[in-house]
Design goal:
The chain is built from one helix and three strands; from the N terminus they run E-E-H-E. By secondary structure, the chain is an alpha+beta fold. Belongs to the BolA/IbaG family. It comes from Rhizomicrobium electricum.
């Protein structure tokens, strides 16, 4: 994730004790001017295919940093 968003602040929280369900808040200047859908697509691309594999469920919040 840091390779794709070097300035990112990432907070991750487990939502269950199964190592599959997480909540993530990602804050980055790279999200400026992007729609929420585009921001989420950027994060999923940075996860390089881990969604649906290593990660079963991710509640994602993105924030554009000034």
């Amino acid at each position: 994730m840091k390779a794709a968003f070097p300035d990112a602040e990432v907070a991750i929280e487990a939502l269950a004790n199964d190592n599959d369900h997480f909540k993530a808040v990602v804050t980055s200047a790279a999200f400026q001017g992007k729609s929420r859908v585009q921001q989420h697509q950027m994060v999923y691309a940075a996860l390089q295919g881990k969604m649906g594999g290593d990660l079963h469920a991710l509640m994602l919040q993105t924030v554009a940093k000034d």
